[in-house]
UniProtKB/TrEMBL annotation:
SMART domains: AAA
Keywords assigned: ATP-binding, Nodulation, Nucleotide-binding, Transport
Molecular function in Gene Ontology: ATP binding; ATP hydrolysis activity
One Pfam family matching this protein: ABC_tran
Name this polypeptide is given: ABC-2 type transport system ATP-binding protein
Domain annotation ABC transporter: ranges: 6-236
Amino acid sequence: MSSAALDITDLSHQFGRRRALDQVSLVVPRGNFTALLGVNGAGKTTLFSLITRLYDNRSGRIRVAGHDLRQNPAQALARLGVVFQSRALDADLTVRQNLSYHASLHGIGRHQAKGRIAQVLDQVGLSQRAGDRITALSGGQQRRAEIARALIHRPDILLLDEATVGLDVKSRAEVLALTRALIADHGVSVLWATHIMDEIHPSDDLVILHEGRVLRQGRAGDIAGQAGLTRTFLDLTGVSA
Ligand SMILES: Nc1ncnc2c1ncn2[C@@H]1O[C@H](COP(=O)(O)OP(=O)(O)OP(=O)(O)O)[C@@H](O)[C@H]1O
């Protein structure tokens, strides 16, 4: 059994004749922040769609917390929390109503859900806003509510697809900081898809995805080397600054 939070081997995906992912292999170790760095069209969302079974993976293998996604989908998906680019919460419901609904989708009973909701709201710093509608929250608070939703069933690994897009600098920093705190305080593993290089610390694990292929994987500081991450990324991908 794999000890990694997420272990992907030789994963490919085509849209018609367009190859969106080409033999992708990557590992997210337990209790780690792994950044998945790629420009628009690199294949990040396609990868997330395969991991969450929105698309069927016909090639390669995906394991979540040791569970093979094709052989044991229920166990694998139960270990996974996902924050997609698009909103998953109902804007007209309160934060608490949204979380209750998602708790019930995960088969969490009413009594247990109450405690879980209090806990995840505390984790994302929204305890005071439980009774507010989603529409009454700022953009950054809405992202934090989305993260609370993704945590309600206590996943081993959290996938976040461009979680800071559209946020101002302060909210971006808050969302990133709380995500990092989840690792330190609760042992959650994180796969953080982004195109923003200054969100990545030298000590993070880094996967560079470009045109559907993994170009580099390792400690971000080692990949960046003397040249720095931006220069290295531009040289590797051929993308112009
Ligand atoms: N439903 C689809 N049908 C056809 N092609 C698609 C579809 N979804 C994605 N693609 C193509 O697959 C490739 C990877 O797209 P994907 O959305 O996974 O990239 P991304 O890194 O998530 O980019 P972005 O951040 O812009 O969403 C692109 O060439 C894209 O045009």
